[in-house]
Specification:
alpha/beta, Rossmann fold, two-stranded antiparallel ribbon, 9 strands, binds S-adenosylmethionine, methyltransferase, transferase, SAM-dependent_MTases_sf, Class I SAM-dependent methyltransferase
Amino acid sequence: MPDAATDTDRTRAYWDTRHREHDDLASGGHIGLDRAGNEIFYALRLGALLDLTGDLSGPEAPLFVLDAGCGKGHFARGLARCGHRVDAFDTSEEAVAHARAEGGGPRYAVAALDQWRSAWPYDVVLCVDVLFHVLDDAEWARALHNLASLVRITGQLIVTDENTRHRVPRGGYIVHRPLAEYRAHLEPLGLRHTAFRPYGFRENEVGFHVFTRSR
Ligand SMILES: C[S@@+](CC[C@H](N)C(=O)[O-])C[C@H]1O[C@@H](n2cnc3c(N)ncnc32)[C@H](O)[C@@H]1O
C-alpha cells in the first residue's frame, strides 16, 4: 500500500526539479523530445483544444477558462492570446514563477487540483497531462470532483488520459485510468462524456476526454 503523503511529496519534488532543469516546453511536454518535437506536440494540442472549445471567442465575449496544473503556462498563454480569460494554477512554485514572468494575460496561482476554489464557475476547465500523474486514488478522486464543481452548466471539463479499458501504470510517475473510472465519478455530478480526441502525435496514446455538464 503506497504512503499517500510520501507519494504526493515525491511527485511535487519531481516536478519542481523537472521545471528547474528543463526548458519551457520539455518540462511540461515530452522529456524525450527535442525542442522542435515539443513545439509540434504543443502546437497540435493547442489547435485541438481550440477546435474542442470553439472559435467564437473575442475580447467582447471571452470564454472563462481554468487551466488546472498549467505547468509553465503554454496552453494558458495560447488561450489568452486567442481572446479567452484564463485563470491557471500549478503546485510547482518553480513553474508558476516562470509562467508569471512570461506574462501574456493569464492570472496564476500556486495550488493543487483538489484545493482550487473560485467565486465563479468556468466555461471550460482544462487539466492537461496532470491527472495521470496523481498516483493516489483518493487524491485523484478529490481532484476530479473539485474540477467538476468548477464547471458551469453546459460548460466543459477537458482532462487528458489514455482511452483505455484497464489501469495502465507506467514507471514511477504515471497511472493511466480507464474511462469507466472517470465516468463513475463524473456522471453522478451531471457531467456526460461527449468526446475523446486522441493527440494523434507519433506513438502517444493520450487524448482529450471531454465531459459536458448538463446539471
Ligand atoms: C506534464 S506537466 C503538464 C503541464 C501543463 N499542463 C502542460 O501541458 O504544459 C504536469 C504538471 O502537473 C503539475 N501537478 C502535478 N500534480 C499536481 C496537483 N495535484 N495539482 C496541481 N498541479 C499538479 C506539475 O507540477 C506539472 O507542472
